[in-house]
């Protein structure tokens, strides 16, 4: 079972696209809204060096932006 966490903001259209993609594929995920949880954004920036969202962590691998092919590649690896 894959562990997927999507880091989002309220106004990010790509975040919505990522969440919709995961739902369509029946992939369970946890959403962390970094506008509501600024400490989570600090963790993301420290980990990836990137400020943008969405950032998706799949089994410890970070994917920046809306990249469904990469998400599926990482999920299928595990």
UniProtKB/TrEMBL annotation:
Which GO terms fall under molecular function for this chain's record? electron transfer activity
Spell out the protein name for this chain: Glutaredoxin-like YruB-family protein
Instruction: Fetch the Gene3D superfamilies from UniProt.
Output: Glutaredoxin
Question: Which stretches make up the Glutaredoxin domain?
Answer: 4-62
Tell me any Pfam family this protein matches: Glutaredoxin
Classification via CDD domains = NrdH (cd02976)
Q: Which GO terms describe its biological process?
A: cell redox homeostasis
Q: Which InterPro entries match?
A: GlrX_YruB, Glutaredoxin, Grx-like_ET, Thioredoxin-like_sf
